[in-house]
Design a protein that fits this description.
The protein is α/β, with parallel strands linked by helices. It is built from 14 helices and 15 strands. Strand 6, helix 9 and strand 7 form a beta-alpha-beta unit. The longest helix has 23 residues. It binds pyridoxal-5'-phosphate.
Length: about 400
């Protein structure tokens, strides 16, 4: 018998639709994929060049477990400049991607039975990582009237004596929503009052549109800073998903425990990618702005077209590169004599009949929704939406 804990982990649903779409593509079927969870741009040349230089200059050995002093200092400067946060290198732990960072945080914080508050809809990996670390994920219901963002009232309903931490994700995957300064201030007060740690996943910080601004909850006061573990990385901002670099900023106490865990499980993050990260953080930021502009254009197009279709309602994405679409008005209706049961069924019929891959909301804790990523070319987006329109027009 294998580990019960491990066997209870479900495979990532975002990966499931993706592999079905890829399988169809490999059979020569022309599938339009809205499943991508990563930028469709190449890593900027300046960063790639630095990695090549790092290899040739011999930066190919183990580094300190928490990352080199050089990369931790670069991260400290970034946090000060971008977020108004002052940290010392001893408070930074660099890991193999922000996902790994979050797992380290949970391993450092949780005792068996500790509860972690996770606002719904959530990123698919949060509940599973909590379970793997012997915690209990508690899904916090949110209201559409508040654009699916958690309020203090929502959090209070899920609070118990076992509540240990809250996972916040702004800008959010999958909803694209951004918490305002006022919303975050209220949540900060709630967490201080109830002594709850905040795991603040800020991986989409640089991808923000319109008038929205990113705030790090840790920046409001010293009390909330002490309780917060800021999680960030280079995957989304610099199109560096394959390089696997994420990091945390926290109290020295938490950082030390995390570095100890990492020293025994991963030794250190990739030495070459650490060098490339220094170049990404310290170099010119034009490529970040360029990507952001491309995403912004696609966002406007996809939002307007989806909301012009019958049965579908989408939240306007304020950040990240996803649009979260309610299919609730289509459920119970019929498509070619198939009664639409839920968003999994909607997504399956759309893929089968119109060769368009979207991710059903079930894995995000929002079964009436589907997520479309706009990290794909404008040309594909136009074609995909044309097909979606044909599909929708056959729903009766
Ligand atoms: C992509 C993503 C991450 C982590 O990315 P890494 O590649 O592991 O750095 C973390 N949180 C959310 C919400 C994401 O979408």
């Amino acid at each position: 018998m294998l580990s019960k804990k491990a066997l209870a982990i479900s495979p990532s649903p975002t990966m499931a639709i993706d592999s079905k779409a890829k399988e169809m593509q490999s059979q020569g079927i022309d599938v339009i994929g809205f499943g991508a969870g990563e930028p469709d741009f190449d890593t900027p040349a300046l960063i790639r060049d630095e990695a090549i230089r790092a290899i040739n200059e011999g930066h190919t050995r183990y580094t300190p477990a928490a990352g080199t002093l050089e990369v931790r200092e670069a991260i400290c400067s970034k946090l000060l400049t971008d977020n108004g946060l002052s940290y010392k290198p001893s408070q930074i732990v660099v890991s193999n991607g922000a996902k790994h960072s979050i797992n380290n945080v949970l391993a450092a914080l949780l005792n068996p039975g500790d509860e972690v508050l996770i606002p719904t809809p959530y990123w698919v990996s949060y509940p599973e990582m909590v379970r793997l670390n012997d915690g209990i994920p508690v899904a916090v219901e949110t209201e559409l009237t508040n654009n699916l963002k958690a309020t203090v009232d929502d959090l209070r309903k899920s609070l118990s004596s076992k509540s240990k931490a809250l996972i916040l994700n702004s800008p959010s995957n999958p909803t694209g929503q951004v918490y305002s300064k006022e919303e975050l201030t209220a949540i900060a007060d709630f967490c201080i009052e109830n002594k709850i740690f905040v795991i603040s996943d800020e991986i989409y910080e640089k991808l923000i549109y319109g008038q929205e601004k990113h705030f790090s909850i840790a920046a409001f006061n010293e009390k909330i800073k002490d309780l917060t573990i800021v999680v960030n990385g280079v995957s989304k901002s610099y199109a560096m998903t394959g390089w696997r670099i994420g990091y945390t900023a926290s109290s020295v106490e938490i950082a030390t425990v995390m570095a100890n865990i990492q020293s025994h499980t991963a030794s250190n993050p990739n030495s070459i990618a650490q060098k490339a990260t220094v170049a990404a953080l310290k170099g010119q930021q034009d490529s970040v702005a360029e990507m952001r502009r491309a995403f912004e254009k696609r966002r406007r197009y996809i939002f307007e077209r989806i909301n012009s279709l019958p049965y579908l309602k989408a939240l306007e994405p304020q950040g990240a590169f996803y649009i979260f679409v309610s299919t609730a008005d289509a459920l119970g209706k019929s498509y070619r004599n198939n009664k639409l049961k839920n968003s999994d069924h909607f997504a399956a019929l759309l893929l089968e009949n119109q060769k368009v891959a979207v991710v059903p909301g079930t894995g995000f804790g929002a079964p009436d929704y589907v997520r479309l990523s706009f990290a794909t070319s404008m040309e594909k987006i136009v074609e995909g939406l044309n097909r979606l329109e044909i599909f929708i027009n056959e729903i009766k």
